[in-house]
TrEMBL record:
Source species taxonomy: Bacteria, Bacillati, Actinomycetota, Actinomycetes, Micromonosporales
GO MF terms, alphabetically ordered: ATP binding; rhamnulokinase activity
Domain spans labelled Carbohydrate kinase FGGY C-terminal: 265-456
Protein name: Carbohydrate kinase
Domain Carbohydrate kinase FGGY N-terminal: from-to ranges: 11-256
A Pfam family that the UniProt record links to this protein: FGGY_C
Length: 500
């Protein structure tokens, strides 16, 4: 059978604040991406617990697939419009299924406080060094392993027969097929980093049933066709396959990095900044563990060696706080004002746990500055400047440490995702890193999702570098060079404030 010249696929990309469905046409000489549906994703506080409204997310995906099918048919494509469907989302959160396959309650958000103190108890039981040697995962209190430990002994956990991460849960509802995609499984703290399989050792040590964890899939695997009900609801051909992609959104975003060779660092920048390198083997040293680096699975056997940095969450939550207080601000205008503010006045550590939960972020930044003897930002523009310089400093620290720990030097930093629109952040990151920053594409995650689908469907062939060659031909990132007036000494002085 001859390969198709191009395919038309739907890439469902779910973020912590919104979801969208993108329509992509991909082939050897074409790469087109269009947003066809966007919907909010707002966690709900109920009974003291922060839940995701997963049924609303599922409805948003269904509505998006219906819109994608209509748009594809209008473009004259075959198969009732779509050739494939792929889903990616943020990591670590999951749903529990009972013996009938029904969902047991709304999934709980990783920002919920139920895991407070749990990580320390698990480390006492298993040993923190042992955990890292097996999983290579950065110790974050919301990792799936700690969420499951927090749920131990609850009625929901007692009734659970299967745990599915959120993209796999939605794929199950679309197809009736259960499984766990590898790149997202690698964020749970329960995957063996060397073998790429569930760690039976850890699962047994924690007293969990091995059957709770679904068989693993890899990006490009076919999950299955749509159920009859889903096909009827969306107007799609029931034979349209749902395909496994890099279902952890960062895995898809790294596929969408338009790198020309291996000497690059990446920052997938949105609510979180995932800062790291693409390697062929995990780094499981004690120095790596102490530095807070994680080893997660990528496409084609690669390792995403990275550090989680809090990202634009501080800015997003500040904007929400001002809005709630009746002081709405135009982000573009505020960024322009922040760019005119003097630099190197105040800085915070964006990874301090105080900044993790939702709430009054400007007040927390002000309290942090007081606590370490810095000036409190006197205006909203000064607050934004403080937040973005802090984030740029955290980016630079992670890039430098990753190179040192992996013995993998880089010549350029690729910043992709929503943060690539933030010109001030991109420039400050170049200044702090002392390296060129190539910003874009904004839609790296959806592009990576679509490229994996297109390869699975035969429209394109080759290895990861071949997918990036196609990206090079169709995207035009913006380049930021370090400014001569932004000395390494000044940035080191900022870092010293936090270390002191």
């Amino acid at each position: 059978m001859s390969r198709p010249q191009s395919v038309t696929v739907a890439a469902a990309d779910l973020g912590a604040s919104s979801g969208r469905v993108m329509l992509a046409r991909v082939g050897r000489d074409v790469l087109e991406l269009t947003e066809v549906h966007r919907f909010p994703n707002e966690p709900i506080q109920l009974g003291g617990t922060l839940h995701w409204d997963v049924l609303a997310l599922y409805r948003g995906v269904l509505d998006g697939l219906r819109a994608a099918g209509r748009a594809a048919r209008a473009g004259g494509t075959p198969r009732q419009g779509l050739d494939g469907i792929g889903i990616d989302s943020w990591a670590v959160d999951y749903g529990l299924l009972d013996a009938t396959g029904a969902l047991i309650g709304n999934p709980i958000s990783y920002r919920d406080r139920r895991t407070e103190g749990v990580m320390e108890r698990v480390h006492e039981q298993l040993g923190v060094a042992r955990l890292y040697t097996i999983t290579g995962l950065q110790n974050l209190p919301f990792n799936t392993i700690y969420q499951l430990a927090a749920a131990h002994g609850t009625p929901a956990a007692a009734a659970a027969r299967r745990m599915l991460l959120l993209p796999d849960l939605l794929a199950y509802w679309l197809t009736g097929r259960q499984g766990t995609e590898l790149t997202n499984a690698s964020t749970t703290g329960l995957l063996d980093a060397r073998s790429g399989t569930w760690s039976t050792e850890l699962i047994a040590a924690l007293g969990w049933d091995q059957q709770l964890f679904a068989p693993l899939r890899r990006p490009g695997d076919t999950i299955g066709p749509l159920t009859v009900d889903v096909a009827a609801h969306t107007g799609l051909d029931p034979t349209v396959p749902v395909l496994a992609v890099g279902s952890h959104d960062t895995a898809s975003a790294v596929v969408g990095v338009p790198a020309g060779d291996e000497r690059f660092a990446y920052i997938s920048c949105g609510t979180w900044s995932l800062v790291g390198l693409e390697l062929s083997e995990p780094v499981l040293t004690e120095a790596s563990r102490k530095a807070g680096f994680t080893n997660e699975a990528g496409l084609d056997g690669t390792v995403r060696y990275l550090r989680n940095v809090m990202g634009q969450w501080l800015l997003q939550e500040s904007m929400r706080t001002w809005q709630a207080h009746g002081e709405p601000a135009d982000l573009a205008a505020l960024l322009a004002e922040a760019a005119a503010q003097p630099g190197f006045v105040s800085v915070v550590d964006p990874d301090d746990p105080v900044f993790l939960p939702p709430g009054d972020m400007p007040a927390r930044v002000a309290d942090y500055c007081r606590r370490i003897g810095q000036p409190v930002p006197a205006s909203r523009a000064a607050m934004v400047r403080c937040i973005l310089e802090s984030l740029a400093l955290a980016h630079a620290r992670a890039v430098r440490q990753a190179q040192d720990l992996a013995g993998h030097p880089v010549d350029v930093v690729h910043l992709v995702g929503g943060g690539s629109r933030n010109e001030l952040l991109c420039q400050l990151t170049a200044d702090a890193c002392g390296l060129p920053v190539t910003a874009g594409p904004v839609e790296a995650t959806a592009l990576g999702n679509a490229l994996v689908q297109a390869r699975a469907l035969g429209a394109i062939t080759g290895e990861l570098r071949d997918l990036r060659t196609l990206l090079h031909r169709h995207v035009t990132p913006r380049r930021y060079l370090p400014r001569s007036g932004q000395s390494a000494t000044a940035w080191a002085g900022l870092a010293a404030r936090l270390a002191g």
